[in-house]
Specification:
Layout (H helix, E strand, L loop, with lengths): L10 H19 L5 H45 L2
Helix pairs in contact: 1-2
Length: 81
C-alpha cells in the first residue's frame, strides 16, 4: 500500500480516532457511522488540515526555542565579568 502524504498516524492511533469519530457521530448527532465512513472522514481532515496543524506546531516550537535562546543569552551576559 502506498503511503499518502497525510498518512501520519500509526495504525493503532488511527483505529482509535476512527472509533472516536464513530462514537461522536452516534452520541452527538444520532447518526450511525461505519468504519469506512469514519476512515474517510479522518482522511478528509488529515488531508485538508493536517499540514496546517503540523506547521503551527513547528511555528510554536520555533518561538519556544527563540525564547529559550534569548533567556540563555541573558544568562550568559550576566555571567560575563
Amino acid at each position: 500500500m502506498t503511503k499518502r502524504k497525510w498518512d501520519i498516524l500509526p495504525k493503532s492511533k488511527r483505529d482509535s480516532f476512527v472509533k472516536e469519530l464513530i462514537t461522536f457521530f452516534e452520541q452527538e448527532r444520532n447518526e450511525k457511522l461505519g468504519i469506512i465512513a469514519g476512515e474517510e472522514i479522518l482522511d478528509f481532515f488529515l488531508q485538508n488540515i493536517g499540514e496546517d496543524i503540523y506547521n503551527k506546531g513547528v511555528e510554536d516550537c520555533k518561538e519556544l526555542l527563540k525564547k529559550g535562546f534569548e533567556d540563555l543569552e541573558i544568562d550568559l551576559d550576566t555571567m560575563m565579568k
